[in-house]
Amino acid sequence: MTQQTPIRRVALTLAASGVPPLPLRAGKVPFGNCRACKGNACGGRPNMKTPGPCRCPAPCHAWAAATTDPAVIVSPSWAAAWREAVCVGYHPGGAGLTVVDLDDADAIAWARIALPGTRTVPTTRGEHWIYRGAMRSVNAVRPGVDIKSTMAYARYLGPGTGTMADLPDVVRALAAKEPPTVRPASFAAAPTGAGGGECRHRTPAYLERGIAMAERHITEASSAVHATVYRTFLAVLSTHGRCGCLTDAHVARLFTAAQSKGETARHCTDAWTNARTRLGL
């Protein structure tokens, strides 16, 4: 039994379950182009933005080489790669999956607040959260967070724990080229108070006191800023989100407070959107 046999066995198990594997060399990176494919001579794309028409049997095209065909995985053309491989990667998008790669403790803390629970796999520094559904892959959608799905690969680190959930819109929104526009004025169309008259929150002192308290809660946070911003937005929306009291000026004050603690406009928008989604607004 060679050292690579257990690695290849993992690959065959993945392939049998419909997840296309590929060998990864030292550094957890794919194998480079072979001689026949070097310099794009084969017509494929070295960086694998698109697979290209290459028919090379070697696993030298990164995620595009991943396959569920066991005959290919055990073929002589893959043998050299398996001998050098240090671990197994897989193409999430090829299996209809999306991996949210959380690279540190802060990213994990954010995910536990902002994302629905799903299957999780521990990594060297963080966690992989795996959802059912494919989407566009994007790196650095927020600090410590990458999305790996189509045209990307992830390292296989075991089956993980928990029930896999469907890919939520909040994850898809992270890959948007521009953050969604927040339109607080649209809340005016939401139901008013139970009496049907003018909302009690329109009392200047009541609303001003609530917004001022929220600003102070954010700016005085000494740790877990991401979590504090989200929870504060959630509290404001739970009180004022359905009555039409909030204006662009109020939301701008909250965003300004968050950005004074290092949050970006994108992160503020994400937190606001996530809070609205949780409350069903």
Overall description:
It is a single chain. The chain has about 280 residues and is α+β, with helices and mostly antiparallel strands. The protein contains 9 helices and 9 strands. Strands 3, 4, 5, 6, 7 and 9 form a 6-stranded mixed β-sheet that branches. Strands 1-2-8 form a 3-stranded antiparallel β-sheet. It is elongated, with a radius of gyration of 24 Å. The model is unreliable at about 45-50 and about 180-195 (pLDDT under 50).
Residues in helices, as a percent range: 25-40%
Total DSSP E strands: 9
Structural class: alpha+beta
Bulk shape = elongated
User: How would you spell out the order of helices and strands?
Assistant: HEHHEEHEEEEEEHHHHH
Report strand %.
5-15%
Largest sheet: 6 strands, mixed
What is the CA-CA span between the terminal residues?
A: 59 Å
Please count the helical segments.
Answer: 9
Mean of residue pLDDT? 82
Low-confidence sequence ranges: 46-50, 178-197
What would you report as the Rg, rounded to the nearest angstrom?
A: 24 Å
SSE topology:
Blueprint: H1 5-16, E1 21-24, H2 70-73, H3 76-84, E2 87-90, E3 97-102, H4 105-114, E4 119-122, E5 127-132, E6 138-142, E7 145-148, E8 154-155, E9 165-166, H5 169-174, H6 204-219, H7 225-240, H8 248-259, H9 265-279
Helix pairs in contact: 6-7, 6-8, 7-9
In brief, what are we looking at here?
Helix content is 36%, strand content 13%. The chain is an alpha+beta fold and 281 residues long. A hairpin with a 4-residue loop joins strand 4 and strand 5 (127-132).
Key words describing this protein structure:
about 15% strand, single chain, elongated, 9 helices, three-stranded antiparallel sheet, six-stranded mixed sheet, about 35% helix, about 280 residues, alpha+beta
